[in-house]
C-alpha cells in the first residue's frame, strides 16, 4: 500500500491532497490560505531581513578581523575596556599597546560609520532641522578637536555621545547633538 502526496503551491495559498495509490481515492485534502500581502507587512519583513543581514555581516566582519589578527601572530586580549573613546583620545598623543589597538580597531569594526557623510555635509549647509544643526555644530567643533575628543567630552558632560539627541546646557539653551562627523573638516588634521 502506498500514498501519493500532491501539492499545489500558489502565491497566496497551498493546496494539498493525499491519494491512496491502490484505490486511487483521495484520503485527505485541504488548503492553507495566507493573508493578503500589504505594503506595511512587506516593510516589516524587509526591515527584519535587513536587520538579520546587518547582524550577520557584523559578526562575519568581527570574526574575520580576529582571524587576521591571530594570523599575523598577535594575541587577542582577554580583558575588555569599556572606555574605548578614552583609548582613542589617548592614542592621539601617546603610544598605545597592541591590546589597546586591538580594542580600538574592534570597536571601529563593530560600530562602523555611515556612508553618506558628504550628503550630511550638504544638508547641514542648507537644512535647518535638528539633524542639520547637530552636524553643523560638529563641523564647528572639528576645527579644533578630533571626533573622539568631541565624543569623550559629550560622554563626560551629557552621559552619552551616540545617536541624535537634544540636550539642555548649563545656561538653559537647547542644543542638538549628532554623532555624524563629515570628513571634509578632518582633512586639515591629516595634511600636516
Map the helices and strands.
Elements: E1 3-9, E2 13-20, E3 25-33, H1 39-71, H2 84-93, H3 98-110, H4 117-126, H5 130-141, H6 147-158, E4 165-168, E5 174-177, H7 187-191
Antiparallel strand pairs: 1-2, 2-3, 4-5
From the alpha-carbon coordinates, what is the Rg to the nearest angstrom?
27 Å
Q: Topology as H/E string?
A: EEEHHHHHHEEH
Structural class estimated from helices and strands: alpha+beta
The total count of strands amounts to 5
Give a verbal description of the structure:
There is one protein chain. By secondary structure, the protein is of the alpha+beta class. Helix content is 49%, strand content 17%. The strands form 2 sheets. Strands 1-2-3 form a 3-stranded antiparallel sheet, with no helix packed on it. Strands 4-5 form a two-stranded antiparallel sheet. A hairpin with a 4-residue loop joins β2 and β3 (25-33). The longest helix has 33 residues, at 39-71. The mean pLDDT is 84.
Give a brief description:
It is built from seven helices and five strands. It has 192 residues and is of the alpha+beta class.
Amino acid at each position: 500500500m502506498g500514498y501519493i502526496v500532491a501539492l499545489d503551491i500558489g502565491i497566496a495559498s497551498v493546496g494539498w491532497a493525499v491519494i491512496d495509490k491502490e484505490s486511487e481515492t483521495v484520503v485527505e485534502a485541504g488548503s492553507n490560505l495566507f493573508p493578503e500581502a500589504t505594503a506595511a507587512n512587506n516593510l516589516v519583513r524587509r526591515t527584519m531581513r535587513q536587520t538579520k543581514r546587518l547582524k550577520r555581516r557584523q559578526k562575519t566582519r568581527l570574526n574575520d578581523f580576529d582571524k587576521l589578527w591571530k594570523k599575523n601572530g598577535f594575541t587577542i586580549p582577554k580583558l575588555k575596556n569599556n572606555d574605548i573613546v578614552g583609548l582613542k583620545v589617548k592614542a592621539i598623543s601617546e603610544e598605545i599597546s597592541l591590546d589597546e589597538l586591538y580594542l580600538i580597531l574592534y570597536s571601529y569594526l563593530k560600530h562602523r560609520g555611515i556612508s553618506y557623510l558628504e550628503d550630511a555635509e550638504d544638508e547641514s549647509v542648507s537644512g535647518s532641522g535638528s539633524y542639520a544643526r547637530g552636524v553643523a555644530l560638529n563641523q564647528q567643533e572639528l576645527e579644533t578637536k578630533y571626533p573622539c575628543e568631541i565624543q569623550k567630552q559629550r560622554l563626560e558632560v551629557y552621559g552619552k555621545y551616540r545617536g541624535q539627541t537634544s540636550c539642555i546646557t548649563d545656561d538653559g539653551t537647547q542644543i542638538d547633538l549628532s554623532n555624524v562627523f563629515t570628513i571634509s573638516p578632518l582633512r586639515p588634521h591629516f595634511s600636516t
